[in-house]
Structure prediction request, 177 residues.
Amino acid sequence: MIRIVTRARLTRLEDDARTASEQARQTSGAANEAFGRHVRELWNVTDRAERAEATTSEVGVLLSGALAELSDAQQEMLRKDIEIRRLREELSCGPREGETVTVLMHHGEPHAVYASREAAHADTAAHGYPVDHVWKPCDERPASAFTWRCEAFTYNPATNGFHRANPPAPRVLDGAA
Prediction:
């Protein structure tokens, strides 16, 4: 088949080609702009995801620390609860015959009551008394003559009270009958 191309047809074809080329250039520009927007959006989304991941990691560390603290606090509460129960049972029993307590006296005045002499001695160390102090039995001087003095008291159910474990020796009064 033979086709005869006229100048007018050739001009129309050139115009169509230029129009198609311009339309392709515009479409390519629009595609490039859309691709740029998508790349920027992808960059922003990736950045937000990375920040969210870092925040999640930080929150995870904080949460694990809080859980560890909570576990420690629960264990401490359990220990204290057990100690409270033990002390309540001990308190409900009341004093038993022959039970001894130590009263720590400061210049003759009761300072504190302890379950043992060692606990009383440890307390005097907390108040500035030498830790390595050698404790000796007190003589007949009054309790006020001593800076720190430990006295043992034993429970007597007959009198429903505590009495000195080592009462002072009776003094002989001159001329008394």
Remarks:
- Helices lie at 7-93, 117-126.
- DSSP finds two helices and four strands in the chain.
- The longest strand covers residues 148-156.
